[in-house]
Amino acid sequence: xxxxxxxQYWMQQAIELAKRGLYSTKPNPNVGCVIVKDDQLIGxxxxxxxxxxxxxxxxxxxxGEQAQxxxxxxxxxxxxxxxxxxxxxxxxxKAQVKKVVVACPDPNPLVAGKGVQIxxxxxxxxxxxxxxxxxxxxxxxxxxxxSTGMPYVRLKVASSLDGxxxxxxxxSKWITGSAARQDVQHWRAISGAVITGIDTVIADDxxxxxxxxxxxxxxTVAQPKRVILDRRGRLPLTxxxxxxxxxxMVMGPYRQELADLxxxxxxxxxxxxxxxxxxxxxxxxxxxxxxxxxxxSAFLQEGLIDEMIxxxxxxxxxxxxxxxxxADFEYMAQQLRFKLLDxxxxxxxxxxxxxxxxxxx
Length: 361
Prior knowledge:
The protein is an alpha/beta fold and 361 residues long. It folds into two domains: 3-141, Cytidine Deaminase, domain 2 (3-Layer(aba) Sandwich), CATH 3.40.140; 149-356, Dihydrofolate Reductase, subunit A. The chain has helices spanning 3-18, 55-63, 88-94, 114-121, 132-137, 140-148, 178-189, 198-204, 256-261, 271-282, 293-301, and strands at 32-37, 40-46, 71-76, 99-104, 125-128, 152-159, 164-166, 193-197, 225-229, 248-251, 264-266, 286-289, 307-312, 322-323, 337-346, 349-357. Helix 3 (88-94) runs parallel beside helix 4 (114-121). It is elongated. The chain starts with a helix and ends with a strand.
């Protein structure tokens, strides 16, 4: 096996480890680490939760004295700063590893090349970029927020074949089947916040939380904040979403009764500013939009969506049913186009993952 193939093999092992923290590490990134010596795995670890040791620390503990002269494979550049835990770059130096292979550089200003520099200054060989694309997919929100100050925003929609999301009365349960609805739980679980509009909360009395994941203990999931856009202060205190008020944020006029419940209240602000607020003030780096046609269309038309997750059921709801989007376009040149990332069949439904594109027809 060539050295490159060997590096890719071990980095893929580190990436698989990192995935084990997918639902629990928020707001921290998902990181995995393996330590290899003489082609043998001698230590491995992943970061399970904010405040707990980082992946490198677990791997070094397992490797013990054997780490001296070994190669460490890490999915994200080792940290260089003192936070709740000491710098991992210094731990690798102290262990006297010979080489560190890094998948992704860390754009966090507290790290941003400093971790690599600590290693190089100690005479440790460093290689960057092995399986970078694969590793970056684990931390799309974190990497985007650290680079731009904006979270990674996914828009989820569920519709019929004729692009309808509810009957004219608002009745919408259910268009898609149980497999598609279960799939939505994953996207909520990787998100720091789910944004919706007050009309959706009133119509569906939804909770928008994570209730079940395959082979995952729900108690280990870092539940997303539920962010309700309520410009006129209409949120009923009896709404199910307020059963766990500490995970609710409301953008609207200040209400003392919400403050008494422990709800975080946000000033009314433009959608882009709201996303910046969530990222910079609340360390929310992945956002899922689950809303009606008006709010979904607004996020799309303002160019704030990074990815759309569209579930389509093999059913027709008719022309009087509510449309998926309500943008008012007159010309073909105004259309919003997407690039298809993948298609997945979920029982009788399909899931399309799409990213907006600027291509013109």
